[in-house]
Amino acid sequence: MSDYTLSDETRDRLKKVSTASVATALYKRGLRNQFIQGVVPVARKPENMVGQAFTLRYIPAREDRNPITVFRNADHPQRVAVETCPPGHVLVMDARKDARAATAGSILITRLALRGAAGVVSDGGFRDAEGIGALDMPAYCARPSAPTNLTLHEALDINIPVACGDVAVFPGDVLVGDGDGVMVIPADLADEIAEECTGMESYEDFVLEQVQAGAGIIGLYPSTKDENQQKYAEWRQKTGR
Length: 241
What we know:
CATH topology of the largest domain: Glucose Oxidase, domain 1
Low-confidence stretches: none
Shape: elongated
Structural class: alpha/beta
Largest sheet: 8 strands, mixed
CATH class of the largest domain: Alpha Beta
């Protein structure tokens, strides 16, 4: 588990950048598989999801181990994960990309939100998705799914390295989610990625204004002409960016 602690400054920066910018910054560092495949926002939120990973791993359910009565156990890992995920963290669920059954429902996710979690991500399903979408806390899953998790999943391990949507997620990694989906940033890169992406977003906003005004892309994006760097410098001074 990482001993990295996400600072307020880095969290604020990452709330203002896109997953596309994060993906490009990580690609420059040789990391090509950090986008969680197959998950979408349950409902779009006005700002990014940003938080460190706290994980829950499901394995395939075996019928003799997963009757409905297991929920009476005070140490059931699904319930324990919801009650122990630290405030400001994102609960990441490894469901083997199997959304035929839910990995949580609105009651548990509401509890998670009220405990101060920054979000939840599952590569499986959520039940009562409308209720989850109504929460202020961002939530991502593969799709709505009514069957209880016990149908196909057994919650087993808490806060260990997991796979979520084909991405290796280690406890303490930093997750950034927007309307496109969720990126996973290795903890030791989070601060520099946040700083780099802030600059990337500034330049891309400038480029978009130029394109909307009729400018061509060649030499502008990426910038290979000195005149565009000069225009960008003037734009930054004018906009305070």
